[in-house]
Amino acid sequence: MEYRALGRSGVKIAPLGLGTGNFADPTSEAESIGILNRAVEAGINLIDTANSYTDGESERYIGRAFAKGLPRHEVILATKAFQRVGPGPNDEDLSRLHLIRACEDSLRRLQTDYIDLYQVHRPSPTIPVDETLGALTDLVQQGKARYIGSSTHPAWKVMEGIMVSELKGYARFVCEQPPYNLLDRRIENELIPMCQAYGLGIITWSPLAQGVLAGRYPSATDLPADSRGALRGGIYSERINQPGIAVGKEVVRLAQEHGMSGAQLATLWVKDQPGITAPLVGPRTVEQLEHLLPVLEMKLSDELRSACDELVPPGGAVASFFNTAAWMKQRLI
Fold first, then answer.
1. Number of folded domains in the chain?
2. What is the band of 331 on the pLDDT scale with cuts at 50, 70, 90?
3. How many Cβ atoms from other residues are within 10 Å of residue 217's Cβ?
4. What's the CA gap between 316 and 333, in Å, rounded?
5. According to the model, what pLDDT value does residue 224 have?
6. CATH number of the domain that 198 lies in?
């Protein structure tokens, strides 16, 4: 397996990362620890979580996995802060007060002395970037974080962070983590070229488009009872529409013609797109993880790349996976 550089940091990560958004909702602790152990055994070394996932339970599961023998030194551990985690006025956003407190809370839940990659989960509409980067720099200098990154930011906000860091000597973002899949390719227009030009890694989320590209949904109104769209509703069900389902069915057909599943092709497509460091896969079971592990060694053919471009053109979208980003005004109809 060929490990990839995370931006210009020098850190090497596997071409797939492990997302833990399903831990504790609905995946049990025992199954979650099984997923973590199998992923690391297979060579996946990036584990991504957030302090807001299931009220911190995702981080607690990972911490208990370390306590039970998951090798901490083999893991690039990433977590995030920004989302509301309490009732108080300072229990959210990117102020110095909140970020330092959130980092210390995450360290306790994760049962570790340091976070390899500490990411701001969303851009702040009110906190000056200088305050945020100053706090993150202090965390790096204190050894509580090794590197910093952003998640689901517009290209201009990432660029602003880079320029302020360069001007003031702050810690510099090493990567951005946006949503990216064949149904929503909008990051190809500005974000990917910007990251390539300035040496940032790109770790993406939702490569399966919430299961749509795996053929999970028969229609936009007939959601399987155990699917994320049905269980969580809201923003999750908003992402499921008939145009996306039609594309998903074609992806499954193409995949079967080439001896793989729709889930494998959808993940492979993201993994081998220009500028991408690694997509995050978020299995609910060890069996689902096992099904995606062969993608680590696969290569996307020119034939399949062209066929996927016919389904959704480069830079286009048929579903919105930026519907959790307040800054994204466009809503697909």
1. 1
2. low
3. 24
4. 13
5. 74
6. 3.20.20.100
